[in-house]
Amino acid sequence: MAKTPKEFVAGTLEVIAKIERMQNRLVMNVGEAVLSTCNDVANHAKSGHDDIMAHAGQRYINRTGLLTASISPALESADEKQVTGIVRAGMEYAANVELGTARTRAYPYMIPALEANKQNFRDKLNKAYEKSK
Fold first, then answer.
1. Domain coverage including residue 81
2. 52 Cβ neighbours under 8 A, 6+ residues apart
3. How many domains does the chain have?
4. Of the N and C termini of the chain, which has fewer Cβ atoms inside 10 Å?
5. Exposure letters 105-114 (e unless 16+ CB within 10 A, then b)
6. From CA 133, how far away is CA 128, in angstroms rounded?
7. H or E stretch including 75?
């Protein structure tokens, strides 16, 4: 038996409501995955700044600990279109350590931390999707 227009509209509205609930759960779960991965990246980057450690095949001497202390993760935004997380190193010389300068060699810490967590992030996104169903 065919649905009446009223039944069809009610069914359509129910489907739309389910999709919106899933979308809200997905945004929340992806936001959690992004923030968790940002924390992992920050911790990995910080672990590369012990007092003296082998870093990029050379010795990096962390004299003050300020760069390590300035590394912080954050969830910048989360909505139905985009979820953005960031890991910042707040010292003005952070990029010089990461990339080097004309006078100093690079001692990368952020890029290796990001690379080391790519699969971790993929796994967390898959779990977020599954959890949102």
1. 5-132
2. 59, 60, 61, 62
3. 1
4. N
5. ebbbbbebbb
6. 9
7. strand 71-78
Torsion of CA 87, 92, 98, 101, to 10 degrees: 160
The pTM of the whole model exceeds 0.90: no
Contact 107, 113 (CB under 8 A): no
Q: Is 62 exposed, middle or buried (0-12, 13-18, 19+ CB in 10 A)?
A: middle
Tens-place pLDDT, residues 39-73: 999 999 998 655 444 444 555 677 888 999 999 99
Tokens of 103: 């006078």
- The pLDDT assigned to 63 comes to 82
DSSP 18-68: HHHHHHHHHHHHHHHHHHHHHHHHHHHHHHTTSSEEEETTEEEE-SSSHHH
CA separation for the pair 54, 130 (Å, rounded): 40
